[in-house]
Amino acid sequence: MTFTIKDAQKNNAKWAEGSEDETARTVSFTIEKLRITKPTWNNESEVYSGSQFTWTLGNFSLIADGQNVSGLVPGALFNGALTVAQASGSAVFGTVGQDGTLKAKNAGKYSVTVALKDGNFLWEDSSFAELTLTHTVKRLGVTVTDPQNATYAHAASDHTSTADLTETGYNSAYMALSEASAALGFTQEGILTAVN
User: Fold this and answer.
1) Is 137's pLDDT higher than 60?
2) 163: which of 105, 172, 188, 195 lies 20 to 30 Å off by Cα?
3) pTM value?
């Protein structure tokens, strides 16, 4: 910025410091970029449950410590400093919120990119590159135990035996029976009635 003493006032005013002939003063200043804390995402894996997961990125859009910014408090939220998007190759989210809230339901490896909105911001370490944060929802482990014991009932009149047994752990929400299993008498509830 340049300040000049008006021509009509040159005989009446002068700069407090400097020469008598100096009529213009240039003052410069710098507006520092606001440093933002890098967000985090809990990296502990979860297991698919059939319910929706909701995550909120930690330290999302917070003003970094060590800045002397009038009217802004380090550690406080600064809305609009960041953008969030699903990263390339990520499992598909249900929601990617610009407030750092993420929602998904299925098992998979989820990744988001978090970027500073524009050139008015820097990360707390003075870098500018976008971040990629990743979280995993593991597939649910399902097991069906081998039937070790069955209760047999012998019908003397037709010389047949039947056995009813229930597979422990069978869950029709996650499992399907093969045609061969169905031909043996297994039902979708995991109950086998076999006739010998």
Assistant:
1) yes
2) 172
3) 0.68
